[in-house]
Amino acid sequence: MERDKGIHPGLIGFDIDCVVADTMEAFIRLAMDDYGIKVSPEDITSFQVENCLAVSPRIIEEIFVRLLVAPVENGLQPMPDAVAVLTEMSACAPLTFITARPEREPVDRWLESNFPEDVYRNSRLVAMGKHDGKAQYVRELGLQYFVDDRVETCIELAKAGISPIVFAHPWNRGRHSFASIDSWLAIKQRISINEFVS
Ligand SMILES: [Mg+2]
């Protein structure tokens, strides 16, 4: 049987929040440290966090705004193994990140402060400012695969002929039949890093 060669590193792009960045860890930590509110990861069963937590929408919005405008200052961390896997991929092809975030500069600074300098320089970042319409950017940037945690985005991508890969979280569990991974080591297994190192 012919061996599956895996995905070329230059053909796959990544969402930022809850894919590259551990946004829910930061949300849960800030809720506890600064507002005294205990949230467990399993409680977050909806992408619209205000729909599943008994926390004031004003506080939820305040925490997310902090992570949007000042991710570095609020200690937003990369997901486990994300930096290592993306660093390996970056030796083969530029990295592409496409986020719904409205502000590019704070997330650009976050990438710069969390990745080795050459990896950061060899990356592309699009801040769309809206949740819908990702397929257009994914296609324009020449990608065939995209890793995202939002089911609606993955449905849109699939309709546009792009292969979505869902990063598994409680809010997307059981809500789709797309390819899915639950860690960066699982992403690494799908990508043929060594084949393309020259
Ligand atoms: Mg996301």
Describe this structure in a few short sentences:
By secondary structure, this protein is an alpha/beta fold. 39% of the residues lie in helices and 13% in strands.
User: Mean pLDDT, rounded to whole units?
Assistant: 94
The major pleated sheet works out as:
4 strands, parallel
Determine the fraction of residues in helical runs and give it as a percent range: 25-40%
Distance between the termini: 26 Å
CATH homologous superfamily grouping of the largest domain? HAD superfamily/HAD-like
N to C succession of SSEs: EHHHEHHEHEHEEHH
What is the global morphology?
A: globular
CATH topology call of the largest domain: Rossmann fold
Total domain modules: 2
Oligomer: single chain
Question: Count of helical segments?
Answer: 9
What would you call the structural class?
A: alpha/beta
State which percent range the strand residues make up: 5-15%
List how many beta strands DSSP finds: 6
Low-pLDDT ranges = none
* Rg result: 17 Å
Instruction: Tell me which ligands are bound.
Output: magnesium ion
Top CATH class of the largest domain: Alpha Beta
Tell me the strand order in the biggest sheet.
Answer: 1-4-5-6
The CATH architecture of the largest domain comes to: 3-Layer(aba) Sandwich
